[in-house]
Amino acid sequence: MPDSPLIVDYLDSLVLGPSGEFRVALALPRSGALGLARPAALAASLLAAEEINDAGGVRGRRLTVTLVDAGQSPAGSARELGRLVDAGSVDAVVGFHTSDVHRALEPVASGRVPYVFAAPHEGGSRLPGVGLIGPDPRRQLAAPVRSLVDAGLRSWALVGNDYIWPQAVHRMATRLVREAGGVVRGSTLVPLGEVDGERLVDWLGGIRVDVVLLSLVGRDLAHFNRAFAGSRLLGKVVRVSGSLDEVGLLEVGGDGSGELYAAMDWYVGDSADGFAARYAARWGAAAPQLGVYARGCYDALHSVSSAARAGGLSAIRPGAGLPPLPARPSRLACADGLDLVPVASV
């Protein structure tokens, strides 16, 4: 974890209470399936904080962050954040985590401090003061599903973790595949942390499909991809994921099949706004691998800062109303265009 004076210890924040600084609760998973994306998310968040402070802070207040472990159970994550909010120790909340945690944090923050969720989400309504900057399932999947079905890949299976986001992905994917003229031959949901890659691969082999849509997350997705890479299905079944970023690809050592697709923004190489270059310059050759969750946290902090400058933090409204974000990078693997390109390596 980067060592930075911009990080205020959790217990110090509780004791200090309200501060002259603009303090943000940075809700990142320290453990669990998405814990592998935390180092880059923290590094990108600190880069954003430095940029904001170099530009004068948040209405003249120096921005600092206090870490909240959003890799706990939803209730545990909500209790940890709630202590900070109750003490008046934080002015905003940003972060990425699974959507079951997100839904538990919503009522803790709503009406008290703005909260920007920086990951793909399940859609639907949000409580007041909650902002979303990630895509919903339709935005992620509509174009990739149409492209692949039009290419003749008509028979699909759906594999995900068993919580609110993959459940929503499966509902939307079933609709999109049918609308495109394909068919979903099987669907399964597995509890977080309990993925048996070999068993899932055997199940896929038994139902004979052209494509498997993966809404497994983090290490669960990595477990599946490792098992798949050593199976007889490699080269026969296309994989598409709405949660695979460069960090997840690095976890499995890359992929040379040409048949693994990511319905995510991609940051290999530099981006149109120079974000990847700034990140590399700040943290050096040993920087944690950059990915979409890290970029989301960077954008979320800039969103909060921009909202405060533009019209106060009330400008952050449920699901809409965020100020314009920095230009997004070009994508090698994209969700909202027809140029879906297979993932090769990091």
TrEMBL record:
Annotated keywords: Signal
UniProt KW Protein biosynthesis keyword: no
SUPFAM superfamilies, alphabetized: Periplasmic binding protein-like I
Xref: Pfam families: Peripla_BP_6 (PF13458)
InterPro entries: Leu-bd, Peripla_BP_I
Start and end residues of each Leucine-binding protein domain: 22-311
Family per similarity comment: Belongs to the leucine-binding protein family.
Annotated protein name in UniProt: ABC transporter substrate-binding protein
Native species: Arsenicicoccus cauae
